[in-house]
Amino acid sequence: MAGFVLEKGLGIVLYAPVDVYLDEEETYQPDIIFISNARLAIIEEKRIKGAPDLVVEILSPGTGYYDLRSKYKVYEKSGVREYWIVDPQQKSVQVFCLQEGKFTLDQEVEQQGAVKSLVIAGLEVRVESIF
């Protein structure tokens, strides 16, 4: 993802740990975030203040429920345009897109196949290359 974004000059990809403030009280550290060129102003010296365009969370046994429920709702409410949930146990990727203020499941691929980003034009990731 980062190489594609850099090559195309579309914005910036950052990896955890990066503090993302979606409101004044709560800090989140998504595994991967993408911020488009049009929204680079949300990057401050030591934090991101506002919703990234795309968030990727990689599930782990200790964070699965939190990523699937709590973070999902927060990212949706905050205006994250695209949310990828990567599940290493199932070898699957779910892509949720924000439509009219609500996430809808746009794609779900298990084991083999590709997911395409609607936010990062032209980005296609083979699921088997992740695992």
UniProtKB/TrEMBL annotation:
<keyword id="KW-0255">Endonuclease</keyword>
<feature type="domain" description="Putative restriction endonuclease">
    <location>
        <begin position="7"/>
        <end position="127"/>
    </location>
</feature>
<keyword id="KW-0378">Hydrolase</keyword>
<dbReference type="Pfam" id="PF05685">
    <property type="entry name" value="Uma2"/>
</dbReference>
<dbReference type="InterPro" id="IPR011335">
    <property type="entry name" value="Restrct_endonuc-II-like"/>
</dbReference>
<dbReference type="InterPro" id="IPR012296">
    <property type="entry name" value="Nuclease_put_TT1808"/>
</dbReference>
<protein>
    <submittedName>
        <fullName>Restriction endonuclease</fullName>
    </submittedName>
</protein>
<dbReference type="InterPro" id="IPR008538">
    <property type="entry name" value="Uma2"/>
</dbReference>
<dbReference type="GO" id="GO:0004519">
    <property type="term" value="F:endonuclease activity"/>
</dbReference>
<keyword id="KW-0540">Nuclease</keyword>
